[in-house]
Q: What sequence folds into this?
């Protein structure tokens, strides 16, 4: 090791130490827990090692429900929120008057308290003795409903959860994409205009490839964020998510540790490791695809 | 096809709050670009030359005035209907497309009966690439090219749809000095080969003088002078043009005319006969090559140093009436000045001396008497 690289390691040490203690060690610990069968916190003892914890979790209907919910959430919210954010940012970039006002409005949810947002969604969707909620009032104009969004059918609850998630993650995506769009050198657009390029073609052939790195970033972080969803479901449906059938994988892990059915760190660890593997796999696939797209370029027709 | 600008004016709304009044970038500009010529639009930064170029290509709409391509009024026509090719200062090559894709990009926009087959697009792109000598680079991405190569790709992309007019915005400013010389010859050659009427914008007078058939000098949005480079250099219409053209720049002296003779400020002896110029204070501009070392010459300067350039000698000296700190005189190398002598005396070549009105900086012509030196 020469002098300069020794120096570099020295500078990296504080961060590396913190990561090792608070990230690497817990992950390894969780991995070990997940193979220890019947681990007991009080006595710090277990009666065997093996795959039993995984087998239990994978056969637990609550876990399967949680996996299904999480995947539906991911598959719906990531494309929809990214697509909508892209459309809104593109619209924001093309208007001049009131642009700052609109930018502020679209960014407000990002700085709004989660509980306040939850309250707003209650007003929108909650059915009480006095009212069916704002959404049901609107549905009635079209002769539909009322639907109990909070305690009703699974699809209705899923709709609210997706709606909520999309609404919450959009401001950040709009912020990032507005920045990305603004950073595209206007000379590219001028050059395209001199050549009589249509607006659609400019968007798909110039704008989109230029901001592709940012889109990839948003999709990857979006996937990871959606897989880790938990608090949003709690805010909408309360803490007993298993009963509501709205649990997520992280929610399942939490319940196994601390919930009413809690006290099973081994099962919780196994579920956490499964989530880790899923997220890792999806992220690798994402990176692979985006790398191929950026290397191969966008081909003519 | 010539290009005619008639009273072209562009005003931009005032920037920011509190400031009132519009900014006039281009002020009733009128000139004609002859068919098939290479024209340099020249002026200091912020003089409105790029705005003028943008109006010619259709990216900016003029506030007033008209633009004619031949007989056709294109003032309101969108860029794609004008048949213009534009090369941007930073080239604006699409970084995610290969050279070939960049060049074919304009062709893919053609619609209706002008639509081309893929093979035809490729054929035209390759043909244009060959013209600018980049046919070996077609599969590269712009970032893998040198500045000069990127420049050629940008020119090829502008030429591929066979435009009626080629516009270049500061085409050489992003290149290093050596490449600049080479590229400006290249541009000149391509323009001659295609015969396309070409306008290029530059703030570098040397660049404009060296390759243009015709130059247009602008200042603050106003046309100062236009004509062939040599003619503009030899016959500047005002002090600005005289100062802007020529390296080293013209030496400007505070002077006065009395009885048809020119007196530099602070000196008693007349330095030149200037018949026909009314008495009064003037600016006297003397080109560096207008000085002739002459032991009995009327202009006495304090010698600072002598720079030997081989072909010529550059004499750096000072004179109290000169507006700049130093005077530069360029003389043939055989006229060796005694570098040990603290004072150097010059006679002046009358055709290299220009007088300008002190108030409006207009040129005050005088009759060149007798034999020219």
A:
């Amino acid at each position: 090791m020469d002098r300069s690289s020794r120096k570099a390691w020295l500078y990296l040490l504080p961060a590396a130490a913190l990561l090792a203690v608070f990230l690497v060690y817990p992950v390894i610990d969780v991995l070990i827990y997940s193979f220890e069968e019947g681990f007991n916190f009080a006595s710090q003892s277990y009666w065997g090692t093996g795959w039993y914890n995984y087998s239990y979790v994978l056969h637990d209907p609550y876990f399967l429900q949680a996996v299904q919910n999480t995947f539906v959430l991911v598959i719906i919210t990531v494309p929809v929120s990214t697509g909508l954010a892209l459309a809104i940012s593109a619209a924001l970039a093309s208007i001049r008057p009131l642009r700052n006002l609109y930018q502020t409005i679209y960014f407000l949810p990002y700085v709004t308290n989660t509980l306040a947002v939850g309250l707003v969604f209650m007003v929108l969707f909650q059915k009480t003795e006095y009212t069916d909620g704002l959404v049901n009032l609107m549905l009635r104009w079209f002769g539909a409903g009322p639907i109990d969004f909070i305690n009703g059918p699974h699809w209705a609850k899923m709709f609210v959860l997706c709606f909520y998630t999309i609404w919450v993650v959009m401001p950040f995506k709009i912020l990032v994409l507005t920045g990305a769009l603004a950073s595209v050198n206007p000379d590219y657009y001028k050059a395209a205009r001199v050549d009589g390029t249509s607006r659609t073609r400019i968007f798909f052939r110039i704008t989109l490839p230029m901001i592709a790195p940012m889109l990839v970033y948003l999709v990857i972080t979006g996937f990871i964020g959606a897989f880790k969803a938990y608090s949003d479901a709690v805010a909408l449906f309360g803490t007993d998510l298993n009963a509501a059938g709205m649990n997520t994988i992280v929610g399942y892990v939490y319940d196994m540790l601390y919930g009413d059915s809690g006290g099973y760190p081994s099962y919780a660890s196994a579920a956490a490791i499964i989530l880790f593997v899923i997220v890792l796999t999806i992220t690798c696939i994402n990176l692979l695809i985006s790398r191929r797209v950026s290397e191969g370029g966008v081909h003519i027709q | 096809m010539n290009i005619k600008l008639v009273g072209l004016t562009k005003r931009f709304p005032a920037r920011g709050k509190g400031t009132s009044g519009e900014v006039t970038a281009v002020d009733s500009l009128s000139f004609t670009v002859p068919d098939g010529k290479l024209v340099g639009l020249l002026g200091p930064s912020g003089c409105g030359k790029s705005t003028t170029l943008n109006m010619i290509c259709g990216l900016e709409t003029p506030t007033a005035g008209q633009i004619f391509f031949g007989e056709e009024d294109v003032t309101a026509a969108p860029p794609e209907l004008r048949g213009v090719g534009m090369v941007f200062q930073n080239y604006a090559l699409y970084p995610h497309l290969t050279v070939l894709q960049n060049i074919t990009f304009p062709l893919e926009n053609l619609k209706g009966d002008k639509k081309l087959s893929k093979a035809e697009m490729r054929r035209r792109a390759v043909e244009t690439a060959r013209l600018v000598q980049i046919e070996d680079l077609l599969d590269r991405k712009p970032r893998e090219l040198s500045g000069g190569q990127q420049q050629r790709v940008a020119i090829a992309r502008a030429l591929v749809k066979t435009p009626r007019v080629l516009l270049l915005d500061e085409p050489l400013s992003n290149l290093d000095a050596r490449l600049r010389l080479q590229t400006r010859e290249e541009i000149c050659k391509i323009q001659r080969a295609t015969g396309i009427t070409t306008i290029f914008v530059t703030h570098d007078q040397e660049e404009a003088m060296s390759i243009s058939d015709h130059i247009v000098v602008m200042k603050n949005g106003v046309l100062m002078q236009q004509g062939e480079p040599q003619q503009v250099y030899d016959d500047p219409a005002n002090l600005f043009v005289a100062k802007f053209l020529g390296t080293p720049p013209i030496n400007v002296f505070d002077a006065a005319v009395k009885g048809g003779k020119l007196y530099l400020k602070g000196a008693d002896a007349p330095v030149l006969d200037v018949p026909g110029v009314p008495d009064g204070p003037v600016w006297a501009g003397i080109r560096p090559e207008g000085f002739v070392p002459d032991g009995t010459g009327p202009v006495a300067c304090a010698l600072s140093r002598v720079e030997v350039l081989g072909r010529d000698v550059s004499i750096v000296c000072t004179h109290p009436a000169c507006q700049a700190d130093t005077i530069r005189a360029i003389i043939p190398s055989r006229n060796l000045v005694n570098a040990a002598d603290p004072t150097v005396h010059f006679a002046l070549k009358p055709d290299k001396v220009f007088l300008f009105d002190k108030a409006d900086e207009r040129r005050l012509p005088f009759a060149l008497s007798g034999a020219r030196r």
Chain A touches chain B through 23 residues (CB under 8 Å). The beta strands of chain A are 36-37, 48-49. Chain A has one domain: 58-296.
